[in-house]
Amino acid sequence: MRHALLLFVDGIGLGPDDPAINPFASARTPTLTRLLGRNLTHTDAPIKRDGALLVPIDATLGVDGLPQSATGQTALLTGLNAPQFAGHHITAYPTAQLKDLLTEHNIFAQVRRLGGTTTLANAYTSEYFAAVEAGRLRHAAITFSALSAGVELRDLDDLRAGRAVFHDLTNARLRSWGYDVPEISPQQAGRNLGGITSERHLTVFEFFLTDLAAHRRIPIAAEAVVEMVDALLGGVLDAVDLARTLVLMVSDHGNLEDRRHDVHTRNPVPALLVGFGRESVGSALRSLMDVTPALSGWISEGLRDG
Ligand SMILES: [Zn+2]
Prior knowledge:
Blueprint: E1 3-9, H1 23-26, H2 30-36, E2 47-49, E3 52-57, H3 69-78, H4 82-86, H5 96-105, H6 107-113, E4 118-120, H7 126-133, H8 141-148, H9 156-160, H10 172-176, H11 186-197, E5 202-207, H12 209-214, H13 222-239, E6 245-250, E7 269-275, H14 278-282, H15 291-305
Parallel strand pairs: 1-5, 1-6, 4-5
Antiparallel strand pairs: 2-3, 3-7, 6-7
The structure holds zinc ion.
Zinc ion (ZN) binds at residues 11, 69, 211, 215, 255, 264.
């Protein structure tokens, strides 16, 4: 059985290889450096390495203005040009129109229709659902898609048992909010995520502190959050069988890679593919819209081959 992990990292583009501008050029990223032989910064052409492939992909989708999360994530999750449907890039939470696209076409639903198994590895608190119920929070595209496809979300019992990962990786935010959960390293979060990945055809995980840090909405230095991503990826790669597993890290738009301002960028975003199937999936990627068709096609092929 082949496994795929869609590791979604919000708000990271491929920016200049300049430590004064780009924290991906100044942070310590041993995992990325080992995989790519360089840092995760601008490249015109795909970088092919033994075991890894980096493809720069377009996040603007032919629509003017700065790419935004609701439309970018909808394009990623459905394979459709969501900003073109909407007429512009839409920030944060999916609108009714985007929800219709997500409900019908999201990757969780696609994999399920193929007969595959799928999960969202993020942990949720009961307070999160209460806040949504009360109208104080809205589901972002990934959570909305998982729920609409009937994917059961993971809770803090799963998290304590190492069967879920909280969005901040370490559980520090949960602990600061008073929850009794252990603090873990980003590497351990990655190993836990790798364990989850090995049980399903498709696992999705959403990390968005990158975008929050870039918007300066949380007091975490840009380098520190880059190093969290690197450690998470390192932990995942320690835990999965790369002969049977494809790890695909991708983003929805640039932001963190340019510290000169705190808004999104029109830079290409990385599609970083590690492990089995990276060439066949990676060679089909040009923009956000290609991720879901390529990934679900690859999963479908595996299901046919048994
Ligand atoms: Zn943002």
